[in-house]
Design brief:
about 400 residues; alpha+beta; Butyryl-Coa Dehydrogenase, subunit A, domain 1; Butyryl-CoA Dehydrogenase, subunit A, domain 2; Butyryl-CoA Dehydrogenase, subunit A, domain 3; 3 domains; 4-stranded mixed sheet; 4-stranded antiparallel sheet; about 15% strand; binds flavin-adenine dinucleotide
Length: about 400
Amino acid sequence: MDHQAAPQTDEQFRASARQWLADNFPVSLKGGKYILPHTQEEGEKPGPDYLLWKGRIANKGWGVPTWPARYGGGGLTTCQAEILAEEMARIGAFNPIGGLGVMMLGPTVLEFGTEEQKLRHVPPIARGEIEWCQGFSEPGAGSDLASLRTRCEDKGDHFLVNGQKIWTSFAHVSDWCFCLVRTDTSRKQAGISFLLIDMRTEGVEARPISLINGVSHFCETFFTDVKVPKENLLGEVNAGWGIAKRLLQHERNGLSSQRNVANVERGLPDLARAYVGTDDEGRIADADLRARITAHMMRQHAYGLTLRHRNAGIEAGLEGSAQMSVLKNLGARVAQDLNELAVEILGIAGLGWEGPGYSEEELELTSGWLYSKCFSIYGGSHEVQNNITAKRVLALPSA
Ligand SMILES: Cc1cc2nc3c(=O)[nH]c(=O)nc-3n(C[C@H](O)[C@H](O)[C@H](O)COP(=O)(O)OP(=O)(O)OC[C@H]3O[C@@H](n4cnc5c(N)ncnc54)[C@H](O)[C@@H]3O)c2cc1C
């Protein structure tokens, strides 16, 4: 692997990252983005330059820049990773390695896994070779996740899993699933274990569910007499709840990132000039809309600064799960505002979600607006995050 020792100062790092990107990022990919596994399935296949770029980033460890080099990461500090992201954005580059393994499972295995589990599972995630899905929610266990009932029995040389998960994003295109299972029915949180399940195991079935925006990215997942090797248990039997809480913290952290929050590609002022028009002074013609776009951009900027502050806190070892809940709600609101404004700006051009009569950008914005409704549901709903904030940040009494 081509892991360089990190240069000493941030400015030196910026210069070397800039040079490396100039030498290695294929210009044909400028303005492109990470291709999600399910869209690959639907026909958006990565081309040769995408695969070349992915290979180069993987060799450098920069798909997961802050993970240790021993497990395929870049060994960078949070601050250096931020500089790298800025330098990528500056030239229209992007990180071609992502997914739930990067956002959630990798950091969790690094914290709770045995050395063998780390070496087995983390490097393939760092190289973008293995897709993971999250088997947490069940038909009777969403916000009250600890009510989950998927049964896991110890059969001596293996575990036997039976049950159903729901809303399992990307299950139909995933290689592996990190799954919460019940190993003790007499205790709620303390009867849950954390299992890693190979999706190709006999008895695993993923059935896709259609979303409001027409896309189908998540599934109902069924486990029928699924045999799971003992070495696929993360942590101890019945100790899965603590691991799951930590993983959810990583999920909320990832969901609240600037990249996820600023998901409208063309800036709002540009869009408004094109669809609403300009006045004699070249300003967006509608004064009220202009004011609301300005207010949104200020919030977006303030949110970006808050994230930077959070990153500095992580660097100093001050990471806290409850704070992630505050950020998750804030980020969801900012992103939903952005999508609302974008569709409002489109006017009647924002009414279609498929078929002729609409440009690709218009269809994407409308679909993005519909999708943005889920920002306050996935990763734990808005109300549930508020409950966590009330309890753990504000220390308010529980009912
Ligand atoms: C796009 C998307 C992707 C997802 N991907 C995955 C995935 O990959 N894997 C996975 O396991 N899950 C996934 N989920 C599921 C997600 O985690 C749950 O939808 C979420 O936790 C809410 O659970 P629920 O849908 O069962 O709603 P419920 O728990 O039934 O909640 C319904 C409503 O009641 C409110 N509510 C519930 N309890 C309280 C309370 N105590 N106080 C105040 N209000 C409350 C909620 O806020 C919500 O508004 C995904 C969801 C979405 C939308």
